[in-house]
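Need tokens for this chain, all 228 residues.
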Amino acid sequence: MSLAGLGIVAIWHDLVPAARDDFHEWHNREHMPERVGIPGFRRGRRYVAISGTPEYFNLYEADSPQTLSGQDYLIRLNAPTAWTRRVVPSFRNVARSICRVAFTNGVGSGGVMLTLRFTIDVARRDGTVDALRRRILPPLVYRKGVAGVHLALADDAASTIETQEKKACADETQVPAWIILIEGNTVPDVDGAADDLAPALQAHGAAALDRAIYRLEFTRLKTPWSAG
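Here are the structure tokens for all 228 residues:
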């Protein structure tokens, strides 16, 4: 296992340029510490785009999907701080999914993250999940420079709950249904793994595929003696 838990919140977004400095200070000093302080949250990471869009990708790892639909998290989402209420309206092109981790393997976390967002016809869901978990994704873990490979499936009900924090966002939020994350050492490392994966996704009818590559910008852990 490479992720820190079996539940994740995955968020992509752009940002109004004038809000960039305020966003980074808020995210580093208030928002990430607040999130990983919630019971069951283990790690938060922020990435910035190298290629593709949106500009930012944020990943929160939690013990389980139940953590992400539990009262501790919902209470926090419904009581945004003044700083949160100021920053969140500057988000644009937001996509956010609360997910169950269906597969995770690797040796650790990498400085580069490739994200794939796509859809699969509901009739092919179970077969595709099984194929990805058993045949398609495991070999990618052993490619040169790959640190981790992960498959996450959105919980539509949990992802679409209306909260005060979500209402502060100026844009309508998309909910990516299927997410594959490939993290590694370099852009060619993760790009090559995604190239190997592409024919299998096509064979299973993957549609609306969105591919982007990000570099790690900030990490916050739960450990009380260390911020990073």
